[in-house]
C-alpha cells in the first residue's frame, strides 16, 4: 500500500509535502515537464501592488554548491496576477498561494485585500525576508514588532491561510517566529535566502549589479535545517522547511527536524523534474521503513 | 521541451581550442530550430546547467561547439565517448527565416547557431552568405559554409583584415552571433538584424528571471524564453553589463 503523504498546513489540506518555492516556479504556467500529481502546492513569484522592473543584470552568480540572485522582485503587479494567472490557478488541482510583498505594513494589507476572494488564490505567503529590494523586505523580517505589524495588517484583511516566510538574517529566529504566530500566522516558512556577495576579480567589483544577492542551493542546507528546527521548536503552528533541498533525503532531514512540509527552489532550475523525484523518493523512504504515512515519521523536536 | 540523458557520440576540433561535441538526443534533434539552445548538466559538474546553442542536428544527434572558458566547459571537453550528459531542450526562440537572401555574421564562438541557420535558410530557398571572423586564422572555425563564405581576421592572416561586421555585405535577412560589442555594431548598421545574445542563465526555462535582457522600450525580458534571438534594435546595448567575458569576447 502506498504510504499516505497528505498534510494539513494550518487548515489547508495538501496532497503531498513537497511544495514549489516562491520565485523558482514562476506563476506555475512556465514550468516545463510539470508533474502536477507530485506538487503539494505552488507559491507564486513574489508580487507587489504595482508592476516592478527588477534589477539590472547580472542578476545571478554561481557560487560553490549554490547561487546568488538579485532579481529585485520583477513582476507585473497585482492586477495582472488577478487577470492573467488566477483564472488558470482556479482550474488546477493543487492550491496556489501568492507571495506578497510591500514597502509598508499597510501595503501588504492592501495587497491581501485586493486578492482575497479572487477564485484561484488559496492563501498568502508574506515575504518579510526578501534581501533584494531597497525598501521593505528584509527590514520587516529583522524586527519582531515590524514582522508582527505586517502579519496583523494582512490578517485583518483576509481569512485565507496565512504563511509568513522568515529570513535567516536574524540573531534569534525563535523571537520572530513567536511574534508572527501571535499576530495570526497559520504557518511559517523557514527560510528565505542568506545575503551574500561575490567579487569579480577581473573587474574588481561585485559580480551582481545589485552588489549583494540571496544565497540559495545546497550550500545553505545545514544552516536552513537548523533554522527551520529552531523555528519549529519555538511555535505551535506548522513550519515549512526551505533551503538547499535537492533530493528526497534532504527533504526528509527537514521533516525529521520538525517541519510539516518542505519547499523546493533552486533544485528546479537544475532539474525540472526535481519536485516529482523528491516526492517519489519520500514515498519510497516511508515504504522502505515500513511507515504507513508521513505522520508516523519519527520527529526530532524536543521542547524547551 | 525534452529532458534527455544523452551519450557523447563524438568530438572533433574545428579551430584552435574550439571543439564540436556530438550527443545522442533524438527528440531534440528532430524538433530544434536554428538559434535555439540546450541546457546541459552532468554528474559532478557545477550546480547550474550550462547553455549552448545547437550547432548541428541530424537524425538522432545534435552537436554543440565550445571552448574551455571555465570549469564547466573544461569538464565537458574532458568527457569520454559514451559519457552521459543531461540535455534539456530545445529552449528559447530561434531565428525567423524569410526573404530571398541572408547574411550570417559570426564572430569567434558566435559560429554556434549558424550551421542550423544556414540549413534552415537554404531549406526555404534563401541564398546564404556566411561572414565568419576571428582574431587570427587559427581561430576561424573551419566549418563555415554557404553559397558564399567571407573570412575576416583582425590581423589579416586570412580573408579580409578587420571585423566580420565591416566585411559583411547587406542582405534582406541579417543574422548575427558573437560578443555583445560586435552585436551592438550590427545593431547600428542593421536595426532589423536578428542577433543571438548571451546572458548568465539560472534555469533556461523561464522561471528564475535571472537572464534579464534590457530592452530599448524599457524593462527586461527573459533571454532564455523571449530570446536568445532578438531584433537588434530592440536591445538596450548600453544597459548590458560591459565588464563580463561574454561582452568583450574571449
Ligand atoms: C543562449 C546561450 C547560448 C550559448 N551557446 C554557446 C555555445 O554554443 N558555445 C559556447 O562555447 N558557449 C555558449 N554559451 C556560453 C556558455 O554557456 C558559457 O561559456 C558557459 O556557461 C561557461 O561555463 P563554464 O563553467 O565553463 O564557465 P564559468 O566557470 O561559469 O565562467 C568562466 C567564464 O565564462 C564566462 N561565462 C559564464 N557564463 C557565460 C555565459 N552564459 N555566456 C558567456 N560567458 C559566460 C564567465 O564570465 C567567466 O569569465 C552560450 C550562452 C547562452 C546564454
Ligand atoms: C531566483 C530566485 C528567486 C526567488 N524569489 C523569491 C521571491 O520572489 N519571494 C520569496 O519569498 N522567495 C524567493 N526566493 C527564495 C526561495 O523561495 C527559497 O526560499 C530559497 O531559494 C531557498 O531555497 P532553495 O535553496 O531550495 O532555493 C527566490 C530564490 C531564487 C533562487
Ligand atoms: S534563465 Fe531562468 S528565466 Fe531565463
Can you describe what's shown?
The complex is a heterodimer of chains A (304) and B (250). Chain A has an 8-stranded parallel beta sheet with strand order 3-16-15-10-9-8-7-4. Chain A has a 4-stranded antiparallel beta sheet with strand order 5-6-14-11, with no helix packed on it. In chain A, strands 1-2 form a two-stranded antiparallel sheet. Chain A has one domain: Aldolase class I (TIM Barrel). Chain A has helices at residues 78-89, 105-115, 138-142, 144-155, 173-182, 221-234, 248-256, 266-270, 274-288; strands at residues 7-9, 12-14, 18-20, 42-43, 60-63, 66-69, 96-100, 123-127, 162-166, 187-190, 194-196, 199-200, 205-206, 213-216, 239-242, 261-264. In chain A, helix 2 links the parallel strand 7 (96-100) and strand 8. Chain A is built from 9 helices and 16 strands. Chain A has 304 residues and is of the alpha/beta class. Helix content of chain B is 16%, strand content 35%. Chain B has 2 domains: 2-91, Elongation Factor Tu (Ef-tu), domain 3 (Beta Barrel), CATH 2.40.30.10; 101-239, Nucleotide-binding domain of ferredoxin-NADP reductase (FNR) module (Rossmann fold). In chain B, a hairpin with an 8-residue loop joins strand 3 and strand 4. The longest helix of chain B has 10 residues, at 114-123. With 250 residues, chain B is an alpha/beta fold. Chain B is globular and about 45 Å long. In chain B, the strands form 3 sheets. Chain B has a 7-stranded antiparallel beta sheet with strand order 4-3-7-1-2-6-5. The interface between A and B is large, with 39 and 35 residues. The structure holds flavin-adenine dinucleotide, flavin mononucleotide (FMN) and FE2/S2 (inorganic) cluster. Flavin mononucleotide (FMN) sits between chains A (21-24, 45-46, 69, 71, 73, 99, 127, 130, 165, 192-193, 214, 216-217, 220, 242-245, 264-267) and B (202, 208, 210). Residues 201-204, 206-211, 222, 224 of chain B line the site of FE2/S2 (inorganic) cluster.
Amino acid at each position: 500500500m502506498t504510504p499516505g503523504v497528505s498534510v494539513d498546513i494550518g487548515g489547508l489540506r495538501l496532497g503531498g509535502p513537497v511544495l514549489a518555492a516562491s520565485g523558482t516556479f514562476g506563476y506555475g504556467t512556465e514550468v516545463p515537464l510539470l508533474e502536477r500529481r507530485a506538487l503539494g502546492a505552488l507559491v507564486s513569484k513574489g508580487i507587489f501592488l504595482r508592476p516592478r522592473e527588477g534589477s539590472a543584470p547580472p542578476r545571478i552568480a554561481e557560487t560553490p554548491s549554490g547561487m546568488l540572485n538579485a532579481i529585485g522582485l520583477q513582476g507585473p503587479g497585482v492586477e495582472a496576477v488577478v487577470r492573467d494567472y488566477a483564472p488558470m490557478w482556479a482550474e488546477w488541482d493543487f492550491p496556489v498561494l501568492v507571495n506578497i510583498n510591500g514597502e509598508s505594513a499597510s501595503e501588504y494589507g492592501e495587497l491581501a485585500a485586493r486578492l482575497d476572494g479572487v477564485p484561484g488564490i488559496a492563501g498568502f505567503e508574506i515575504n518579510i525576508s526578501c534581501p533584494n529590494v531597497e525598501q521593505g523586505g528584509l527590514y520587516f523580517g529583522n524586527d519582531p514588532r515590524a514582522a508582527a505589524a505586517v502579519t496583523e495588517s494582512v490578517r485583518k484583511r483576509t481569512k485565507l491561510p496565512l504563511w509568513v516566510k522568515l529570513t535567516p538574517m536574524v540573531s534569534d529566529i525563535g523571537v520572530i517566529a513567536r511574534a508572527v504566530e501571535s499576530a495570526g500566522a497559520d504557518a511559517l516558512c523557514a527560510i528565505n535566502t542568506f545575503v551574500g556577495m561575490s567579487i569579480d576579480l577581473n573587474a574588481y567589483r561585485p559580480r551582481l549589479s545589485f552588489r549583494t544577492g540571496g544565497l540559495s542551493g545546497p550550500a545553505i542546507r545545514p544552516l536552513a535545517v537548523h533554522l527551520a528546527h529552531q523555528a519549529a521548536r519555538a511555535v505551535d503552528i506548522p513550519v515549512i522547511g526551505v533551503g538547499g533541498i535537492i533530493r528526497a533525503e534532504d527533504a526528509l532531514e527537514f521533516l525529521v527536524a520538525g517541519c510539516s512540509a518542505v519547499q523546493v527552489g533552486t533544485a528546479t532550475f537544475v532539474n525540472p523534474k526535481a519536485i516529482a523525484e523528491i516526492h517519489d523518493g519520500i514515498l519510497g523512504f516511508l515504504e522502505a521503513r515500513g511507515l504507513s504515512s508521513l505522520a508516523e515519521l519519527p520527529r526530532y523536536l524536543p521542547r524547551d | 521541451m525534452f529532458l534527455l540523458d544523452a551519450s557523447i557520440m563524438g568530438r572533433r576540433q574545428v579551430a584552435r581550442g574550439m571543439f564540436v561535441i556530438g550527443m545522442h538526443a533524438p527528440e531534440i534533434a528532430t524538433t530544434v530550430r536554428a538559434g535555439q539552445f540546450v541546457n546541459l548538466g552532468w554528474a559532478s559538474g557545477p550546480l547550474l546547467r550550462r547553455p549552448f546553442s545547437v550547432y548541428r542536428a541530424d537524425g538522432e544527434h545534435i552537436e554543440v561547439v565550445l571552448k574551455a572558458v571555465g570549469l564547466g566547459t573544461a569538464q565537458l571537453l574532458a568527457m569520454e565517448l559514451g559519457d552521459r550528459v543531461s540535455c534539456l531542450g530545445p529552449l528559447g526562440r530561434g531565428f525567423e527565416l524569410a526573404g530571398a537572401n541572408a547574411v550570417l555574421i559570426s564572430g569567434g564562438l558566435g559560429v554556434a547557431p549558424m550551421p542550423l541557420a544556414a540549413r534552415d535558410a537554404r531549406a526555404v530557398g534563401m541564398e546564404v552568405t556566411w561572414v565568419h571572423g576571428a582574431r587570427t586564422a587559427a581561430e576561424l572555425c573551419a566549418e563555415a559554409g554557404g553559397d558564399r563564405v567571407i573570412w575576416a581576421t583582425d590581423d589579416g592572416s586570412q580573408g579580409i583584415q578587420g571585423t566580420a561586421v565591416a566585411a559583411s555585405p547587406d542582405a534582406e535577412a541579417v543574422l548575427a552571433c558573437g560578443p555583445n560589442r560586435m552585436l551592438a555594431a550590427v545593431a547600428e548598421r542593421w536595426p532589423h538584424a536578428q542577433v543571438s545574445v548571451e546572458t548568465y542563465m539560472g534555469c533556461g526555462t523561464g522561471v528564475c528571471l535571472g537572464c534579464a535582457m534590457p530592452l530599448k522600450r524599457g524593462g527586461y525580458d527573459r533571454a532564455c524564453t523571449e530570446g536568445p534571438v532578438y531584433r537588434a534594435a530592440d536591445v538596450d546595448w548600453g544597459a548590458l553589463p560591459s565588464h563580463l567575458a561574454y561582452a568583450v569576447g574571449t
